[in-house]
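Q: Convert this sequence to structure tokens.
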Amino acid sequence: MSNVVLGIDIGGSHITAALVDLDTREVVEASWRRARVNSMGEADAIVREWCVVITEIFNTFKPAQQKLALAMPGPFDYEAGISLMKDQNKYDALYGLNVKELLANECHIPVENIHMINDAASFLQGEVFGGAAKGFHRAIGLTLGTGLGSSRVLDGVAEDADLWKAPFKDSIAEAYISTRWFVKRYAALSGKTVKDVKELSEILPGNPLAQQVFDEFGTNLGIFLASFVEMDKPEIIILGGNVANALPLFEKSLTAELAKHNITLPIKCATLGEKSAIVGAASSWR
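A:
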């Protein structure tokens, strides 16, 4: 295996990793690994758990060069490899530590063979490299889930747009554009509790309050995207994350709101799924 790189997605409770062929821009499916990680553990234990997965893949597939790239949540000094995450109920023990050096030492890999990339940017980079935004030079992307991730691509290079805390209505964008907004809003309208967007979508047929929640969400998302589009002038909008799976349920109100701002850009759901961040991180070696 010559031109392959190990792409890694570091989540709040897991590590997902796979080799990526940079020539075909595809994941080597047999190399896909996923393992739970105690993100509230001690630093050395966290790094050791990551290295178990990394070492197993390298030992099994024996790539010509042991190069890897990690899609990491922020805040993080990605160039230096130092974690700045604090009080997020994940990876607190890594705060202020040079994670890149710890990983290199534990896995016996040269530190220069390790790249670290923002996870929101990696998601969109993956979609540009080999997914729904392939061929586009300017794109914006949102990951819609428990939180709000935002990223932009300019001339083929992705970066974190960091708009989750942008002022929005009486709060910030993430308060209105996330799973918890759906749960909170449906409870306010109905007095009933749902676990997440998937559960809400399952009770939708014949439930006008559930549809109202999806309609309101589409409108809110359209308002948010209108300002994002105005800033970046993208050619395409990419939506990822669990909430994006429900796009048909709020697409009508979303496009109606965007039309008020004369925005008719294509809106596509990410096609790589969990692979987006892995492919995007790995593509930093291209």
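Residues 208-232 form the longest helix (25 residues).
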